[in-house]
Amino acid sequence: MHKDIRTYNSALTKEDKKICNTLANEIDASLPEAESKIWHRSPVWFLEGNPVVGYAKRKDNVQLLFWSGQSFEEKCLAPEGSFKAAQARYIKASEIELKDLKRWLKKAKLIQWDYKNIVKRKGKLVRIT
After folding, report:
1. Better pLDDT: 129 or 73
2. For residue 124, what pLDDT is reported?
3. Of 105, 116, 25, 28, whose CA–CA distance to 72 is shortest?
4. Bridge partner list, 47
5. Which residues make beta-bridge pairs with 63?
6. Which of 26, 86, 104, 126 could form a disulfide with 77 if both were Cys (CB 3.0 to 4.6 A apart)?
7. Considering Cα of 38, then 39, then 42, then 48, what sign does the dihedral take?
8. Torsional sign, CA 73, 32, 47, 15
9. Could you tell me where the beta strands, DSSP code E, fall in 12-113?
């Protein structure tokens, strides 16, 4: 786990820390080639400079976000924002279904929209093939 992400997680409550450590460990294991860092104050993993997954502590939960998640066609992921992102939210670590998380992380590798160049394309998203 990246040291900045470890620091982020360590500042959380016991249950939120458990959620975030579980997420970080599974993401690291599933995306070993990804670069991870704190981006916009939250842990995010990038493939070739493109954000694919991250999480953030919210007021009463931990939000897991997949930038291209709406294209995963997963009923357990709720649309988030005006682009292609989708989310899951957790209050307890026991709510994390590892089988689902691993499947979503596989899809995060295969299904990506090009967020890295969204500004250059003036807000237009293009699917990476």
Report:
1. 73
2. 78
3. 105
4. 50
5. 56, 89
6. 86
7. negative
8. positive
9. 35-39, 42-47, 50-57, 62-66, 78-79, 86-90, 112-113
Give the start-to-end residue ranges of the domains of the chain: 3-128
Element (H or E) spanning 98, and its range? helix 98-110
Pull the structure tokens for residue 12: 């959380």
Q: CA–CA separation, 113 vs 105, rounded Å?
A: 15
- Whole-angstrom distance, CA of residue 74 vs CA of residue 5: 27
Burial readout 43-53 (b: 16 or more C-beta within 10 A, e: otherwise): bbbbbeebbbb
* Nearest in space to 112 (alpha carbons), one of 91, 95, 129, 89: 129
The fold adopted by the segment(s) 3-128 is: Aspartate Aminotransferase, domain 1 (3.90.1150)
Q: Are strands 112-113 and 127-128 parallel, antiparallel or unpaired?
A: antiparallel
pLDDT (tens digit per residue) in 19-61: 999 999 999 999 999 999 999 999 999 999 999 999 999 999 9
